[in-house]
Design a protein that fits this description.
Chain B: GO terms for molecular function: ABC-type transporter activity. Chain B: It is found in: Cell membrane; Membrane. The complex is a heterodimer of chains A (about 325) and B (about 280). Chain A has helices at about 45-55, 75-80, 95-105, 110-125, 140-150, 170-185, 200-205, 220-230, 245-255, 275-290, 305-310, 315-320; strands spanning about 5-15, 20-30, 35-40, 60-65, 70, 80-85, 160-165, 190-195, 205-210, 215-220, 230-240, 260, 265-270, 295-300. Chain A is built from 12 helices and 14 strands. Chain A is elongated and about 75 Å long. The two termini of chain A are about 45 Å apart. Chain A folds into 2 domains: about 5-225, P-loop containing nucleotide triphosphate hydrolases (Rossmann fold, 3-Layer(aba) Sandwich), CATH 3.40.50.300; about 230-310, 2-Layer Sandwich (Alpha-Beta Plaits), CATH 3.30.70.980. With about 280 residues, chain B is an all-alpha fold. Chain B is built from 13 helices and no strands. In chain B, helix 1 crosses helix 6 and helix 2 (about 40-60) runs antiparallel to helix 3 (about 70-85). The chains are: A alpha/beta (about 325), B mainly alpha (about 280). At the A-B interface, helix 2, helix 3 and helix 4 of A face helix 1 and helix 5 of B.
C-alpha cells in the first residue's frame, strides 16, 4: 500500500439527500505529505466530501481511498490512519484535558500506560500542559480547538481532515491553529482542509480545489488560481453615483478584465495584473477625464470574487 | 515525535468481542466520570422523588385511600420506585442528543473503536446510575416507614423488575436521542413523560378512576411493574378481581420491557448505522 502516491484519492463520488445533490461527481487527488485546501461557499459539498472520506458517511456512487484503503470496504483500516477535526470542538467539556485525550487513546486501543503517555506528550506539544487537569469546558475557544486537534492526532495519523478548523475563532486563535497545522505538515502528515476563507487556504495549502454544487470546478496552487482570475483587484471609490458608469468604462479600457459596479458603495472594481503599472495607468486616466475620486486601492481578490470569476455568480446565491 | 506503539487491529471474533467490551467500558467510564465530577446532577435527580415522598406520602397521603385498606406510604413507595425508573429516560435522551449535536458522536464514529461501544457504554452508565438512584430511594422509603415483607429474595426480584423497566427505557431513550434533531426538541418530547407516569397505578388505584382512564392506566406498562413490585415487596395493593392485565401483572412486568427492548434495541442499532446514510 505504501506504493500509493496519493494519500487521498476520490473518483466520481456522488451523494444525494432527497432532491439535493450534495456531491455530484467529486474528484480529488491529494499527494502524500501535502496540504490540500477545499474551498467553497456553504452548501458546496465540502463537509459531505470530508465526511465520506473520514468514513462517517457512505457515498451513493464513485470510489475513494484514504492512505491506500477503500473508505467503504476497509473503513476500519482507514479509521486507524486518520484524524478528524470537525466544525465543533468535539471534546467532552466535563472531562479534563488529559482525561479527554486518554479516553480517545484508549478508543484507539492504546494500552492504559501508552494512552497516558501520549496524552501528556500531546498536551505538551499543544501548549496545554498547564491546563491538563482543568475541565475542557473552562478552556478558551482557541485552547479547545487545540485540544480537539490533539484528539485527532492521538495515533499520529497519516491523513488529517480539518473541516473548517478556524470558523468562529478570533485572529489570534486562528494563527495558533495555523501554526499547529504547519508543524504537522512539517512532520509529514497529509492534510485535507476545508475552508470558506481564501486567505486560510492561501496560508496553509499547497494546492487548492475550489468546489461548487458538489464538484471540484478548479484546482491548482494558490498562485495558479489567482493568476487564473486575474491576480489583484483594484477598487475605485467615488464621492457619489454620477460618474460610476464613466469610471466603469474607463476601467474596462485600462485594465483587461470586466469591471464590477457596486452602486450603493459608489465603487467600481476590476481585476488587474502588475499592481504598480495598473495603478499608475488608472490614476492618469482618471485625471485626464477630470473625475475626482474618494479612494483608489489595489488589493487581493476575496473568495467571493474568485468564486464569481469561476462560476459566474456570487457565493450568496449558492448559499441561499 | 516519540515512539508511538502500533495499535493492535483485532481480527479474530474473540479479539473483536474483547475490544467491544473494553470500548464499551471506556465510554461508560466517561459518563460515570461526569457524575463523579458533577455530584450536583445526582442530587438534583434525587430531589424530585424525595419531594414526591413528602408531597404524596404526607400532604396528599392523608386523604388517600388504599383499596382494601393498608398504609398509603407502603402503597406509594413502589409507585415512586417505578416512576423514578421511568423518568430516567430523560437522562438517556438528553445525553444522546447532546453528544450528537456537539459532534462527539461523529468523533467516536471516526475512531476505530467497536461500533457497539457508543450505545453499550451509554446503557451501562445509565444502569449504574439508576441502581444508585434506586438504592437511595429504597433508603428514603425505609425512613418513612416503608418496608419489604416477603424476604430479601423477593425484594431483590422486585429491584430486578424495576431495573428491567429502566433497561428497556434506555433503548427507547437512545432511539429518541438519535432521531431528535436538537436539544430544544428534547423538552417537547419529554413533556408527556411526567403525566404518563401518573396515568398508572403509581399514586392511586385505577379502580378509583373513571373507567376509560382506569383501563388506560391499567394498560400502562408502568402499572404492571408497580403491581408486580408491590406484590414482591408485600406492600398493600388493590384487591384481586381487576382486569386481565391487573391480574397478570407479574407476567406483564416482564413482557412489557421485553417488547420494548425487542422493538427499540434493533431500531436504535439500525438508526445508529443509518447515521452513515
Amino acid at each position: 500500500m505504501s506504493g500509493t502516491p496519493h494519500a487521498v484519492l476520490a473518483e466520481g463520488l456522488r451523494k444525494t439527500y432527497g432532491p439535493t445533490r450534495a456531491l455530484d461527481g467529486f474528484d480529488l487527488a491529494v499527494p502524500e505529505g501535502t496540504v490540500c485546501g477545499l474551498l467553497g461557499p456553504n452548501g458546496a459539498g465540502k463537509t459531505t466530501a470530508v465526511r465520506i472520506l473520514a468514513t462517517l458517511l457512505r457515498a451513493d456512487g464513485g470510489r475513494a481511498t484514504v492512505a491506500g484503503f477503500d473508505v467503504t470496504r476497509q473503513a476500519e483500516q482507514v479509521r486507524y490512519r486518520i484524524g478528524l477535526t470537525g466544525q465543533y470542538a468535539a471534546v467532552d467539556d466535563a472531562l479534563t484535558g488529559v482525561q479527554n485525550l486518554q479516553m480517545f487513546g484508549r478508543l484507539f486501543h492504546l494500552s492504559k500506560a501508552a494512552a497516558r503517555a501520549r496524552a501528556e506528550e500531546l498536551l505538551d506539544r499543544f501548549g496545554l500542559t498547564g491546563a491538563a487537569h482543568r475541565k475542557a469546558g473552562t478552556y478558551s475557544g482557541g485552547m479547545k480547538r487545540r485540544l480537539d486537534l490533539a484528539a485527532g492526532l492521538v495515533l499520529a495519523p497519516r491523513v488529517l481532515f480539518l473541516d473548517e478548523p478556524t470558523t468562529g475563532l478570533d485572529p489570534r486563535n486562528r494563527n495558533e491553529v495555523w501554526s499547529v497545522v504547519r508543524s504537522l505538515v512539517a512532520g509529514g502528515t497529509t492534510v485535507l482542509l476545508t475552508t470558506q476563507y481564501l486567505d486560510e487556504a492561501d496560508q496553509l495549502a499547497d494546492r487548492i480545489a475550489v468546489m461548487d454544487a458538489g464538484r471540484v470546478i478548479a484546482e491548482g496552487t494558490p498562485a495558479e488560481l489567482k493568476a487564473r482570475i486575474g491576480g489583484d483587484q483594484v477598487d475605485v471609490v467615488l464621492r457619489d453615483a454620477t460618474h460610476l458608469s464613466e469610471v466603469a468604462a474607463l476601467l474596462s479600457r485600462v485594465t483587461d478584465g470586466t469591471p464590477e459596479t457596486d452602486e450603493d458603495g459608489f465603487r467600481v472594481s476590476a481585476p488587474v495584473t502588475g499592481r504598480a503599472a495598473a495603478l499608475t495607468g488608472i490614476l492618469r486616466a482618471l485625471d485626464t477625464a477630470g473625475i475626482e475620486v474618494e479612494d483608489v486601492a489595489v488589493r487581493r481578490p476575496t473568495l467571493d470574487e474568485v468564486f464569481l470569476r469561476l462560476t459566474g455568480r456570487p457565493t450568496d446565491e449558492v448559499t441561499a | 515525535m516519540s515512539t508511538l506503539p502500533a495499535p493492535v487491529i483485532p481480527t479474530t471474533p474473540a479479539a473483536r468481542f474483547r475490544y467491544a467490551v473494553a470500548d464499551g467500558w471506556v465510554v461508560a467510564r466517561r459518563y460515570l466520570t461526569h457524575w463523579v465530577q458533577e455530584p450536583g446532577r445526582i442530587v438534583a435527580g434525587l430531589v424530585f422523588p424525595g419531594m414526591m415522598v413528602l408531597l404524596f406520602g404526607y400532604v396528599f397521603g392523608s386523604a388517600m385511600q388504599v383499596p382494601g385498606g393498608g398504609n398509603y406510604r407502603e402503597f406509594l413507595m413502589p409507585g415512586l420506585f417505578a416512576m423514578t425508573m421511568a423518568m430516567g429516560i430523560a437522562v438517556t435522551v438528553t445525553a444522546v442528543v447532546s453528544d450528537t449535536s456537539r459532534g462527539i458522536t461523529d468523533r467516536f464514529r471516526s475512531l476505530p473503536m467497536a461500533r457497539s461501544a457508543v450505545v453499550t457504554g451509554r446503557s451501562i452508565a445509565d444502569m449504574v446510575n439508576s441502581l444508585l438512584d434506586l438504592v437511595v430511594l429504597l433508603l428514603c422509603g425505609l425512613l418513612v416507614g416503608w418496608q419489604w415483607h416477603n424476604g430479601p429474595g423477593s425484594a431483590l426480584a422486585a429491584v430486578g423488575l424495576l431495573l428491567l423497566l429502566r433497561f428497556a427505557l434506555v433503548w427507547v431513550g437512545i432511539y429518541l436521542g438519535l432521531i431528535l434533531p436538537s436539544p430544544e426538541a428534547v423538552t417537547v418530547v419529554l413533556a408527556p413523560v411526567y403525566p404518563l407516569t401518573m396515568i398508572a397505578n403509581t399514586f392511586v388505584s385505577p379502580q378509583q378512576m373513571p373507567s376509560w382512564l382506569g383501563t388506560l392506566a391499567e394498560w400502562n406498562p408502568l402499572s404492571a411493574t408497580v403491581t408486580a413490585t408491590r406484590e414482591l415487596f408485600g406492600n398493600a395493593g388493590p384487591a384481586a378481581g381487576g382486569s386481565w392485565v391487573a391480574e397478570n401483572a407479574m407476567l406483564m412486568a416482564v413482557v412489557w420491557p421485553a417488547v420494548l427492548i425487542a422493538v427499540f434495541l434493533p431500531l436504535s442499532v439500525r438508526r445508529y448505522r443509518r447515521l452513515s446514510h
